[in-house]
Amino acid sequence: MSIFNGKDDKKVGAPESISISNMIGKGTLITGDLETAGNLRIDGKLKGNIHSKAKVALGAGSLVDGNIYSQNADIEGEVTGILEIADTLVLKATAIIKGDIITNKLVVEAGAKFNGTCRMGEQPMPREQSKAEHTKVESKKSATV
């Protein structure tokens, strides 16, 4: 049974890892990067990057201070960092995004706040290339200061 939609995530022929669900509860603070092949729900706080091959869901009141790389994402909380979502990013009414968005499809509910740039309709770069690009940008910024 999934904590995301009340339905069984296990599909015939689907990889075993897709049915895995992870949750960080309200009142929990984690410092460090998270990597998962399955779904991830955060109601607490995370200082670090998230890499998920499935869906990331941030509940209302949640906070992520880091980048999010995933297949899909539903955001109700706050993110300070880059969001690279391969398929669909949904910003709920309580979402606050302070950073850039790269996604194929974007759904924004009335009330959501977003400060940054957005590129849509293109696939995010592979993670290794993406890290290299972000490093290049940071190097250019520090070289011009």
Mind explaining what this structure looks like?
The chain has 145 residues and is mostly beta strands. It has one domain (16-144). The chain has 1 helix and 16 strands. It has one helix at residues 127-144; strands at residues 21-24, 29-31, 34-36, 39-42, 45-47, 50-52, 55-58, 63-65, 68-70, 72-75, 78-80, 83-91, 96-98, 101-108, 113-115, 118-120. Strands 1, 3, 4, 6, 7, 9, 10, 12, 14 and 16 form a 10-stranded parallel beta sheet that branches. Strands 2-5-8-11-13-15 form a 6-stranded parallel beta sheet, with no helix packed on it.
Write a brief caption for the model.
This protein has one helix spanning 127-144; strands at 21-24, 29-31, 34-36, 39-42, 45-47, 50-52, 55-58, 63-65, 68-70, 72-75, 78-80, 83-91, 96-98, 101-108, 113-115, 118-120. Strands 1, 3, 4, 6, 7, 9, 10, 12, 14 and 16 form a ten-stranded parallel β-sheet that branches. A six-stranded parallel β-sheet has the order 2-5-8-11-13-15, with no helix packed on it.
> Can you give the helix content as a percent range?
10-25%
What letter string, H or E per element, gives the SSE order?
EEEEEEEEEEEEEEEEH
Class from secondary-structure proportions = mainly beta
Shape: globular
What portion of residues belong to β-strands? 35-45%
Helix count?
1
Unreliable segments of 5+ consecutive residues: 1-17, 135-145
- What integer is the average pLDDT? 82
Largest sheet: 10 strands, parallel
